[in-house]
Design a protein that fits this description.
Layout: H1 6-22, H2 33-46, E1 88-89, H3 90-107, H4 113-133, E2 139-144, H5 147-151, E3 166-170, H6 176-192, H7 198-217, H8 226-232, H9 242-260, H10 263-271, H11 273-276, H12 291-305, H13 311-323, E4 334-335, E5 341-342, H14 349-373, E6 379-381, E7 384-386, H15 388-403, H16 427-430, H17 447-450, H18 481-484, H19 488-503
Amino acid sequence: MKPVALHFLFPFLLQFSLLILRFSLCNSSYLNYGEALSKSILFFEGQRSGFLPNDQRMDWRSHSGLGDGSTVNADLTGGYYDAGDNVKFGFPMAFTTTMLAWSVIEFGEVMPAAELRNALVAIRWSTDYLLKTVAQPDRIVVQVGEPMNDHNCWERPEDMDTARTVYTVSAPNPASDVAGETAAALAASSMAFRSSDPGYSDTLLRTATKVFDFADTYRGAYSDNADIREGACPYYCDFDGYQASIYFISFFKSWLRRASGGEKYLDYIQNNGKTLGADENINEFGWDNKHAGLNVLVSKEVLQNNLYNLQSYKASADSFMCTLIPDSSYSHMEYTPGGLIFRPGGSNLQHSTTITFLLLAYAKYLEQSSVSASAPVSLNCGTISVGPTFLRKIAKHQVDYILGENPNGMSYMVGYSNRYPQRIHHRGSSLPSVRDHPQVIGCKEGSVYFNSSGPNPNVLVGAVVGGPGEDDVYEDDRADFRKSEPTTYINAPFVGVLAFFTANPNPN
């Protein structure tokens, strides 16, 4: 890049300084990131299905779903309920697992030892279940429970009496999305367990490779299958269909590449770089879209292994980061007046937590590359140049907003601070626990609790809800599930984010 005269650069330096101030609204030293980290992991105990262990800390929960799989002569106990209902959806559960594992891979080294152990326990509760879903060759269990019937009831998971239908996809029917996401979850988790349990790590990686072969051989969306569409839609359909399967497969191959070092996975990523690197949806990342996550993940190879034939991925990752800079000429992301990343649709904090995770991961990759190159690495975002420090400032503002530095003065993590959502959209939390009310509460008998204006009797500690709207308004209304329902895939990336800020509360 040609040098720029200082007198010409001054206005942009001033603009850059003002932008930094925007994302440093006030001193956040009072925020206890360590407490938030601990609670963000504890949340997963409240979402457990199956036979709960003696060391279960969320003690208002009890055993549930103990007959799961019995209709197909299989053991499908365990795993997580994805949100405030009692269905086990494989698609978001696998993504949740991937993000928990990625959190440990990138930031586990700075986690307190006790929380690293708890995070690994949270991962294993899911991977043990995912291994069961792929126990049969060329078949994957993608869901347990009928969502329509389940959603017509308001009952505790311990009492549920709706059908626990098992939804499976067998070859030659396609399931690139769910099978691939499951392969990614197992591969990433194998890396997370590599030092603490190498035998389990080997099992996860070996299974991931087999599951990936199924995903790659029978390409297409799992919800293209009529029987699956009836159960999964409209909740967790793959809305992009076959076109998205290339992105899913590439994301999963990237994880298999990192976990195994296999050159065959690298070849696929390289050969599809021109097709996959640039796309109009590069700023999407979640259970149903891998664009931004794929580009950031592959950029690590470019930055740290000098694989310049993957440069298109890094270019797209750079573009994604630049869309997050409000005063950049490439700015594309919406923010609420209070500074929260906002994307239209429900459960907005799923976008904020995943994007914040990518900001920190990319900042780490850039910084590590700077060390190896003995020179600063930054992004050219048109009128300004952005480095790791600035990306972390944007991430910090998102975290602080979620934890209470927002126009409402409310933490959107349940059980954190003195003011947090009291009426979350969550069956187990809103109904008396089996400990306090051992009698069965039937399907419709729970309605009186759903319609109550009182706070939930059980605190789902650590749950991050869907969050406020584009105007920063949050009504704390149990019926408004888009804002008040927590999900595992909101919390999972937040674990890694909070781990970083626990170790670096005021990052440079």
